[in-house]
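ARCHIVE RECORD
Type: protein–small molecule complex
Small molecule: 2-phosphoglycolic acid
Source of inputs: curated submission
Record status: active
Notes field left blank by submitter.
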Amino acid sequence: MARKPLVAGNWKMNKTTIEATFLLQELAYACEKRYEDMDVVVCPPFTNLRSARVVFDSDKSGIKIGAQDVFWEDEGAYTGAISPLMLKELGCSYCIVGHSERREFFGETDEMVNAKARALIRHGIAPIICCGETLETRDAGETESFVTAQVRAALTEITADEAQKAVIAYEPIWAIGTGHTPTPEMAEETCAAIRLELTELYGTATAQEMRILYGGSMKPSNVKHFEPLPNIDGGLIGGASLVAADFIDLLKAFD
Ligand code: PGA
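STRUCTURE (tokenized, with ligand):
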């Protein structure tokens, strides 16, 4: 089964509105084609979602918009929070949940990741569910059990039909923003373990349809190691998504 590749740029907490508008326009301009056989997603900070919508609505690239986080309620007294309804209104079709930086700096738990994923699916937004181990967990030989437990927890009470929309992003924490990457064998082994977990949860047909991304210091110079791997269907790109030429090179690698 051929899965449609997906490459998503996670801008994290970078770019003022003026800087973002410049980068969005650079991206739209540099895209030489309309992406139809792969999904390309840009996830800027909340403050730049509207600019992203305006730029990509009026160009031909087919680039989609995603958010980096969400709260699970639709509305109410939750100061500072953003709901799935608000994201939908701005045209977001994807939203990252459970990024290791949210788990580390904002106390996000597996239960919260699950609540966010369910809320997004309820509103037709595809969650990009992040998982990944620390170096200590890897050194202890517990990567697979740790990562698959994160995936299982994030998908609690999500049916096979609903899960088809979800995307899993495997991001070893020690590879994020460090320039270190796992060997292709390590990345493939962990992503294959994730797919096996999805098979146990939902059966082969659904597990074969769900996309698994690799993330963590992916760059034009190392994408060739990851792109051919059978269980890797694209990338979640941090640093390299802030440079239009690099992001476009990564798109070309998966196209
Ligand atoms: P990086 O970040 O590409 O800068 O390592 C990836 C991510 O955190 O999603």
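CURATOR ANNOTATION: The pocket of 2-phosphoglycolic acid is lined by residues 10, 171, 176-177, 215-218, 236-240 (CB under 6 Å).
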